[in-house]
């Protein structure tokens, strides 16, 4: 009898779920998982939302999931205020009430707050602003300290860390496995990949690859000099332009993700298209056309031809998030207007959000608004 | 004419010609390929109203390159002059314009303006005000029994600087991601923000300060001998120290508020000038000022032309400046410091 009971216990243990994370480490997942701590800027939470498991999140490490962001934008004769929210913060306002165990700027975990929130599992996404991963030694120390808490730890490597967009598939699969929903998670990836494929198909035969400049505008720099920050040729942003969009990075010989660029240098680059990412604040296209702060850029060809576009709102988002295909679509349409004239981004966004988060029309429209994408109705 | 005076006059003349040449070279250098004739056309059009010019050329040369060149000249003169003044009154060759905590105070002021834009409307004014406040605090701390001891002043400057640096740390901690980047970029310094407004402000306050310092330079010579000697030669060292500290702080804080923190110029240029014209501050001030202007102008031209992106000028200033200072310390220490 004793032998039989022992065999049953061993058999149950043998069946206990274990998931291999992106380190290649097998992690035992507790049964009836109820409390998860996430160290991610919204990606992990987004996948959990898709899988219907977001309610398991009990503590967070990203301040982007807590903050309300507001921006005052100066036009020619008006000032407008914009309010942006992380999609997860917008969909799940209760995330703001959860304990946050990181410094506002990231990379400094408060382990006591983490332990105090008593999670049964920690999911760490390396490469987000919360834990960047650029400093390998610091990352190793963070991981070893997290492991020392004896709370099971799943480590995911984001595209910023791996320099490869496709590794998001592994990230999604691992999150899915934790809940026995790997197929559903992979289905989500397939959907995102299908949008990438749609873009690839539409640009396959373009005859001209436009030169695109990412221009992160800065409050401190937006005096007459109108300088900004751009991405070098070794960044995921540049890779996306070259490999997926069939466009060129207007900056041809700089490396790094924070290259300062002056107004004269922008004239020197003479980009066909300018994209305004959320860098030091959200920047709508009308700002660069109208604000006296950017008067010195008025003679740029891209401005004269009205080819300046604002990217979705993404503060504190150092790595790709679940909504990245929407960003790709905007970039692709900005670069190749003719090829994408049949796609209305605003309508596409509604359907996209609905599929992504299993939400209704109203909530999807709310997300489009908080992502500051309503301008795409006229795009 | 006295040989020494002749040497100073010729040095100033030579440096002035070099400055003009550097400015012209900077004017025709840049990522956008513009001809000398374009530059001349823009100058004729804007100053004498002659001819017509392409709008892009007008923006690049008149709105972008000209302000950078002029602000480089003004800031270079200011920082180098402030360095001369501080090194003389503190009688310490390693003192630089930000020794009394001006840069830390200005950084705090700029951080406040970035973090609380509704309260501190102008970043420049906030940086300037807190730069001055830091120096004022350092002076108050060092003021005891009617006397301000130089060593105590440097020490209190270090303390005040440290406090303001900690406050900047708190500001950074409290700031959002985008604000943090703003603070970081402001602290890196750069002339890309130059505007005609900055030039007007720096010229209006900085140049008169420089002229006053030049007129009073002979008293700076007396101060550099020490308080007792200065007193025995008939001047009140306390009063003149205060005047010179106000002048040096005003011009360095003005520079910081316009272009952020640019180190090394105030430390290096006085030494370079001493090598050229000796120890008389009446000669060192103009020579160091001109050298500072040329040096910053060359560094800024490199910063904006070496790559298709902007290299923070502070990096180039330090990269070239540190080996130079090392060479001075190794090779010329006996001549410079006796």
Helix vs. strand class of chain B: mainly alpha
Element-level helix/strand string of chain B: HHHHHEEHHHHHHHHHH
Distance between the termini of chain B: 28 Å
**Overall pLDDT level of chain A:** 89
Strand content of chain B: under 5%
The residue ranges of chain B in which pLDDT falls below 50 over 5 or more consecutive positions are none
Instruction: Tell me the fraction of residues in β-strands of chain A, as a range.
Output: 15-25%
CATH top level assignment of chain B: Mainly Alpha
How many domain units of chain A? 2
Give the CATH architecture of the largest domain in chain A. 3-Layer(aba) Sandwich
Number of structural units classed as domains of chain B? 1
Query: What is the tally of beta strands of chain B?
Result: 2
**Number of separate helices of chain B:** 15
Tell me the name of the CATH homologous superfamily of the largest domain in chain A. Nitrogenase molybdenum iron protein domain
Please, could you describe this protein's structure?
- Chain A: It holds the Pfam family Peripla_BP_2.
- The complex is a heterodimer of chains A (379) and B (338).
- Chain A is 39% helix and 15% strand.
- Chain A has helices at residues 2-15, 43-51, 87-91, 111-116, 136-148, 159-162, 168-178, 182-203, 236-245, 263-269, 285-290, 301-304, 324-335, 345-357, 361-370, and strands at residues 18-20, 26-28, 36-39, 57-60, 69-74, 79-84, 121-126, 153-157, 211-214, 216-217, 228-230, 248-249, 259-261, 273-276, 308-310.
- Chain A has a four-stranded parallel beta sheet, sandwiched between helices. Chain A has a four-stranded parallel beta sheet with strand order 12-9-14-15, with helices on one face.
- The relative contact order of chain A is 0.13.
- With 338 residues, chain B is mainly alpha-helical.
- Chain B has 15 helices and two strands.
- Chain B has a two-stranded antiparallel ribbon.
- The A-B interface holds A 63-64, 67, 69, 103-105, 129, 218-221, 223-225, 227, 230, 232, 251-254, 259-265, 267-269, 278-281, 296, 298-299, 315-316 and B 30-32, 55-56, 59-60, 63-65, 67, 114, 117, 123, 172-182, 185-186, 190, 192-196, 304, 307-312.
């Amino acid at each position: 009898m004793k032998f039989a009971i022992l065999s049953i216990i061993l058999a149950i243990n043998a069946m206990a779920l274990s998931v291999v994370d992106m380190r290649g480490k097998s992690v035992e997942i507790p049964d009836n998982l109820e409390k998860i701590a996430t160290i991610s800027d919204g990606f992990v939470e987004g996948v959990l939302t898709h899988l219907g498991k977001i309610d398991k999140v009990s503590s967070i490490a990203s301040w982007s999931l807590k903050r309300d962001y507001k921006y005052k934008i100066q036009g020619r004769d008006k000032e407008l205020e914009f309010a942006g929210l992380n999609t997860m913060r917008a969909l799940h306002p209760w995330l703001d009430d959860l304990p946050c165990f990181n410094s506002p700027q990231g990379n400094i975990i408060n382990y006591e707050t983490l332990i105090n929130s008593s999670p049964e599992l920690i999911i760490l996404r390396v490469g987000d602003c919360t834990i960047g991963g650029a400093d390998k030694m610091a990352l190793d120390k963070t991981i070893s300290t997290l492991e020392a808490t004896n709370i099971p730890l799943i480590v995911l490597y984001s595209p910023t860390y791996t320099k490869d967009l496709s590794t998001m598939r592994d990230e999604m699969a691992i999150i899915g496995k934790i809940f026995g929903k790997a197929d559903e998670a992979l289905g989500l990836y397939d959907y995102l990949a299908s949008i990438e494929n749609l873009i690839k198909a539409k640009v396959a035969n373009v005859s001209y690859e436009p030169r695109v400049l990412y221009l992160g505008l800065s409050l401190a720099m937006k005096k007459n000099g109108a300088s900004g920050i751009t991405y070098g040729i070794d960044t995921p942003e540049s890779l996306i332009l070259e490999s997926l969009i069939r466009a060129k990075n207007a900056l041809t010989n700089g490396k790094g993700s924070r290259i300062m660029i002056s107004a004269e240098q922008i004239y020197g680059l003479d980009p066909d298209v300018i994209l305004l990412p959320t860098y030091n604040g959200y920047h709508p296209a009308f700002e660069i056309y109208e604000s006296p702060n950017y008067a010195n850029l008025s003679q740029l060809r891209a401005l004269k031809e009205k080819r300046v576009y604002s990217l979705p709102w993404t503060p504190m988002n150092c790595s790709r998030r679940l909504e990245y295909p929407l960003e790709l679509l905007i970039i692709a349409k900005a670069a190749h207007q003719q090829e994408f004239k049949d796609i209305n981004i605003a309508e596409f966004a509604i359907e996209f959000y609905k599929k992504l988060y299993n939400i209704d029309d109203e909530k999807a429209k709310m997300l489009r608004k908080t992502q500051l994408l309503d301008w795409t109705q006229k795009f | 004419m006295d040989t020494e005076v002749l040497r100073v006059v010729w040095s100033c003349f030579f440096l002035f010609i070099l400055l003009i040449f550097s400015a012209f070279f900077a004017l025709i250098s840049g990522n956008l390929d513009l001809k000398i004739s374009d530059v001349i056309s823009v100058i004729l059009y804007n100053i004498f109203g002659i001819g017509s010019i392409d709008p892009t050329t007008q923006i690049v040369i008149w709105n972008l390159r000209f302000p950078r060149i002029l602000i480089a000249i003004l800031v270079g003169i200011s920082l180098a002059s402030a360095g001369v003044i501080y090194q003389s009154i503190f009688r310490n060759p390693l003192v630089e314009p930000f020794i009394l905590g001006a840069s830390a105070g200005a950084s705090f002021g700029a951080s406040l303006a970035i973090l609380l834009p509704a309260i501190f409307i102008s970043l420049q004014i906030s940086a300037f005000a807190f730069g001055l406040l830091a120096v004022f605090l350092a002076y108050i701390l060092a003021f005891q029994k009617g006397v301000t001891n130089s060593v105590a002043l440097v020490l209190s400057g270090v303390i005040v600087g440290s406090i303001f640096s900690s406050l900047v740390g708190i500001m950074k901690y409290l700031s959002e991601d985008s604000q943090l980047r703003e603070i970081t970029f402001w602290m890196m310094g750069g002339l890309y923000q130059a505007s005609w407004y900055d030039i007007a402000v720096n010229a209006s306050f900085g140049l008169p300060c420089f002229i006053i310092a030049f007129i009073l330079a002979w008293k700076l010579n007396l101060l550099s001998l020490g308080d007792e000697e200065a007193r025995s030669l008939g001047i009140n060292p306390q009063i003149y120290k205060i005047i010179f500290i106000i002048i040096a702080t005003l011009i360095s804080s003005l520079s910081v508020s316009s272009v952020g923190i640019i180190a090394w110029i105030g430390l290096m240029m006085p030494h370079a000038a001493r090598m050229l014209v000796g120890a008389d501050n009446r000669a060192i001030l103009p020579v160091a000022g001109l050298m500072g202007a040329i040096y910053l102008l060359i560094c800024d031209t490199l910063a904006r032309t070496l790559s298709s992106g902007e290299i923070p000028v502070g990096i180039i200033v330090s990269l070239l400046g540190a080996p130079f200072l090392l060479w001075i310390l190794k090779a010329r220490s006996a001549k410079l410091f006796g």
